[in-house]
Amino acid sequence: MRLVSFLTSLIVLLSFALPWLRPPSGEMTFIGILDQVLTTPHGFEGVFWWLNPASTGSILTFVTFFAGMFLVLLGVFFGILGGRLGPGVGLVGMFLFTTVAWYIYGEGFVDIIGEGYLLGLGGFVAGFVLGGGKYL
Questions:
Q1: What total of structural domains would you count in the chain?
Q2: Domain extent for 127
Q3: For residue range 85-95, what is the model confidence (pLDDT) as tens digits?
């Protein structure tokens, strides 16, 4: 069963190079989003400028979004190492990522979802359902 966690984590890892979001400002891969969150070129006030220029994110929004991205990375790391818990941690991270992006974009979030996001979510769901079994 650990092979399933490994394979699904590789799928999620491959999704990092595909567009996760397609806001009006252009396509954003997971790697690009991580870069924008970590480097914050426009200061804290503009940390979400790449998502929606009209949004004003608070510190709680930023921390939640960063925690979601960290959990996605942690889920991939645990899954590649063969752990059954990896896809579950990744799903929690995807939930936090989605919640913050949905908060910022509202109902328009569904329109900006890219294939990388869907592939990542599908990989974590498959790993959680097929790799966990009765042990979760």
A1: 1
A2: 1-132
A3: 888 899 999 99
